[in-house]
Structure formats: structure tokens, C-alpha cells
Specification:
With 209 residues, the chain is an alpha/beta fold. The chain has helices at 22-31, 45-56, 75-81, 95-106, 143-155, 171-177; strands at residues 3-10, 13-20, 65-68, 86-91, 112-116, 130-134, 159-165, 181-191, 194-203. Helix 2 (45-56) runs parallel beside helix 3 (75-81). The protein is globular, with a radius of gyration of 16 Å. The model has no long low-confidence stretch (mean pLDDT 93).
Length: 209
């Protein structure tokens, strides 16, 4: 599938993101060659907000082992890789990860590893310092699984950075985790003619001895 590069700028640095050509994507969907609808093919506002937050708060990421779950095209991973020791960029589909590899090469980033991971079946032996998540809490049917995922990482004293649009349906999920909030920042982005407000929250278990 062909792609093209789009430029994103954060904190004075440019990043080239490889994205699918719309015509090729439509043909792949119509032919049935894609397993699921390609929501991953777009860089969503939450990913942009998360990338901006990382660039502005790079001390959180500096020299850390980072995992991005449900990464799609992986823009936050590209930004994090500039500061982190290493980054695992993951998705449950292989198609977006092939685009991530091209983006990493174009940006001369060598500390990104792509891996197929379904957060419904998170490997229990995968321990990292930071977990990045953007726009994952959109389906209430997934909230119970996400609760278990968040609990697992917080028990490991892993820092969670969650970027979420301010949707009514997501409010109950977010409120549940506010006791673990150590930072929060709001972003306003434009998506076509609409304004989209996104919250970025840093969650951390603070009972470390």
C-alpha cells in the first residue's frame, strides 16, 4: 500500500509521518484484504495532543523504556523516541506497524521496535517505565479490560500517559482513575471545521516505598 509523508511540528522539531494514500486504502478495504476497518490510517487528535505533551514534558520520557499500545501510525512513539532509551510501538494489526517502520527510518530513529500486541491480552512479562495510550477509551464495552490493564501497569509502578477526547461516554472511565493523576493538560485541536478538546493525563501509583 502506497503512502505519503505529512509533517508535524512539536517544540521546535519536525517529524515525518508516513500515512496511507486514500485511494489505495479504499481499494484495500473494498477488496477485503484488510482484516478490520482501518481506523489506524488516520492520525487522530488525541495522538497529536499526546505527541505535543511528550515534546513539552520530555523529562518524563528521558532515558525511559516506553511502550505505546494501540499505536496506529505511531506519532507519539516517534516523538518519544527522541528522548527515550527505547520505544516499543504496538498494535494488534500488522498494517499500521509497516507504516511506523517507514516513518522511523525517514526520521532517522533507530530505537523503535514494532510489535503486535492486543491490549485485550497484554503480555504479563512486558515491563516498561512508561505506557502511552491515545483515544482507547471510546467503547464502554472495553472499559473493564482497560481497567485491568491500568491496574496491572500501576501495580508495576509504570507511568501511564493517557490522551483522551472529552467525550461524555468516556467520562466515567476517566473519573475512576483521577485519584492517580499527577499531571493534566488540555489541548484544543481542529478536525475539519470542528474544535476537538483533548485531555492528557499522567497517572502514577504514589505508594512506592
Amino acid at each position: 500500500m502506497r503512502g505519503r509523508f505529512s509533517t508535524y511540528s512539536f517544540a521546535g522539531s519536525n517529524y515525518q509521518l508516513y500515512t496511507p494514500v486514500t485511494k489505495d486504502l479504499q481499494e484495500a478495504w473494498m477488496s477485503g484484504s484488510l482484516k478490520d476497518f482501518p481506523y489506524w490510517s488516520k492520525c487522530w487528535p488525541s495522538a497529536i495532543a499526546l505527541s505535543d505533551f511528550i515534546a513539552k514534558n520530555q523529562a518524563l520520557i528521558q532515558d525511559k523504556h516506553v511502550l505505546e499500545l494501540a499505536a496506529g501510525l505511531g506519532l507519539p512513539s516517534l516523538v518519544a523516541a527522541r528522548f527515550a532509551k527505547n520505544v516499543i510501538t504496538s498494535d494488534y494489526l500488522s498494517e499500521p506497524l509497516s507504516f511506523v517502520k517507514i516513518s522511523a527510518a525517514e526520521n532517522n530513529i533507530t530505537n523503535i521496535e514494532t510489535r503486535i500486541i492486543n491490549w485485550h491480552n497484554q503480555p504479563s512479562d512486558l515491563l516498561v517505565d512508561i505506557v502511552l495510550l491515545s483515544d482507547v477509551n471510546y467503547n464502554p464495552d472495553d472499559f473493564e479490560t482497560l481497567d485491568r490493564l491500568f491496574s496491572f501497569f500501576l501495580q508495576q509502578h509504570t507511568l501511564i500517559i493517557l490522551s483522551t477526547p472529552q467525550r461524555i461516554m468516556a467520562r466515567s472511565f476517566v473519573e475512576k482513575w483521577l485519584p492517580f493523576k499527577t499531571m493534566q493538560e488540555e489541548f484544543m485541536l481542529r478536525e475539519g471545521e470542528e474544535e476537538v478538546w483533548v485531555s492528557v493525563l499522567v497517572l502514577e501509583r504514589r505508594d512506592r516505598e
